[in-house]
Amino acid sequence: MKRFRFNLDKLLELRQYYEREAELALARAMGELQSIQDRLEKLAEERSEAAAERFRPGRSVAQIQATDLYILRLDKTKEVLLEAAAKAELVVQEKRQAYVEASRDRKVLDKLKEKRLKEYKYQLSLEEIKTVDDISSGSRARNTNI
Asked: What's the CA gap between 43 and 84, in Å, rounded?
């Protein structure tokens, strides 16, 4: 019997490639979201420090106003980053869905390949049994003729 050959191997390779690409796209999107979240945390720390600095004794009115303006700028930056985080979260969800679909498509072909390989091995074992039977019945026939 000839070697096992899965006719859809090229399609399986293509689906594996698409799955890897979808996984990389998901990782990039998650990295971007994490970067935005890190910037938001840093911004919160800066705002907390600025708020504490604002009420430090011995500060002039100009310094207090400058700190207030800095806090306002930090708040505006926070709003922009929150919007960016929301958009990045949507992108992550889209990329995750694409990855799940690509993974599912590949798994379907993997299962089909496993099923065909199992069928092939079963047929191979049937052929081996038949060959052994033929050999053993041939040796019996030779032994009875002697």
From this structure: 14
Does 142 reside within a domain? no
Phi, psi of 42 (to 5 degrees): -65, -40
| Domain encompassing residue 97 | 9-112
Asked if the structure places residue 136 within a domain, the reply is: no
- Asked if residue 43 lies in contact with residue 76, where contact means CB atoms within 8 angstroms, the answer is no
Handedness of CA 35, 18, 20, 98 (dihedral sign): positive
Residue 3 placed within a domain: no
Q: How many residues in total does the chain contain?
A: 146
Lookup: tokens for 46: 């800066």
Q: Number of folded domains in the chain?
A: 1
Span 87-123, pLDDT tens digits? 999 999 999 999 999 999 999 999 999 999 999 999 9
